[in-house]
Amino acid sequence: MAEVTSFPTTFNLGGDLTINRMGYGAMRITGDGIWGPPKDHDESIRVLKRAVELGINFIDTADSYGPNVSEELIAEALHPYAAGLVIATKGGLLRTGPNQWPINSHPDHLQEALEGSLKRLKVDQIDLYQLHRVDPNVPFEKTLEFLQKAQEQGLVKHIGLSETDVDQIKKAQEYVKVVSVQNMYSVDNRKWEAELTYCEEQGIAFIPWYPLSGGNQQALEKLGQVAQKHDATPQQIALSWLLHRSPNILLIPGTSKVKHLEENVKAASIQLSEEDMQALENLND
């Protein structure tokens, strides 16, 4: 019988927030191009409510999703928030149209973005506020000074980064305690492997966005072979692999459908064997 691997089901974020590693990303409850309201408002509300019912206590969003729409829906569906529910949001991107994401991490913009997020989410403090992108046109130190000040003022509890490399994480750590890094990462896209390793060493949560294999046929075939053994879908195996990959990985798969949400959550109960992990480790061979 193949040896089954195991993984912790929770992660301690920032030293004081214990969260389930299967979370929910609220980008997809907006319109096409992550622009405007969703086609089915009521289904989006059902998804958010169902996520909490299923034991998800970490929801990731951003002021740019909609823009504003995702945060507003979260408050509509879930406020007042259940004890232990952690809402993470982000600032640092502008929206000029569907699928358009100009970067702006100037302190003036971040101040406006943070104030808007607090108001829309109906909270006095953001549990986890993430810099959506490092702005090449703004000195990183200026952005970090803003985040430091916002935390000192009690407007944010914890601070995270997104799409940052090890050097940028280290620079940020000179100003604030970095508790999370959100980078693109999946079973078939491991560009940020060094960042994952650094975060694990530092006790920093690593939050993969776009965690599912996207059209890589060779990867999908191998995922499918493992999925057959577990009576699962390739997408569920891709999520399970991430949970097995490193104990500091937090998952935030997004969807606008309750059925799909329930399928994603089931991935947390799949136990991959050492053989399965080895097969997926050599995905591109």
Question: What can be said about this structure in brief?
Answer:
With 285 residues, this protein is of the alpha/beta class. The protein has helices at 41-53, 69-78, 107-121, 140-152, 166-173, 193-202, 217-229, 234-245, 258-266, 274-281, and strands at residues 10-13, 17-20, 24-25, 58-60, 86-91, 126-131, 156-162, 178-182, 205-206.
List keywords for this structure.
285 residues, alpha/beta, TIM Barrel, 10 helices, globular
Which second-level CATH architecture applies? Alpha-Beta Barrel
The overall pLDDT, averaged over residues, is: 95
The topology string of helices and strands comes to EEEHEHEHEHEHEHEHHHH
Total separate domains: 1
Q: Unreliable runs, pLDDT <50, ≥5 residues?
A: none
Strand content: 5-15%
**Helix share of residues?**
25-40%
CATH class term? Alpha Beta
CATH superfamily: NADP-dependent oxidoreductase domain
The beta-strand count equals: 9
- Biggest sheet architecture: 7 strands, parallel
| Cross-sheet strand order for the largest sheet | 3-4-5-6-7-8-9
Radius of gyration: 18 Å
Helix and strand composition category: alpha/beta
Total DSSP helices? 10
End-to-end Cα distance, whole Å, is: 25 Å
CATH topology: TIM Barrel
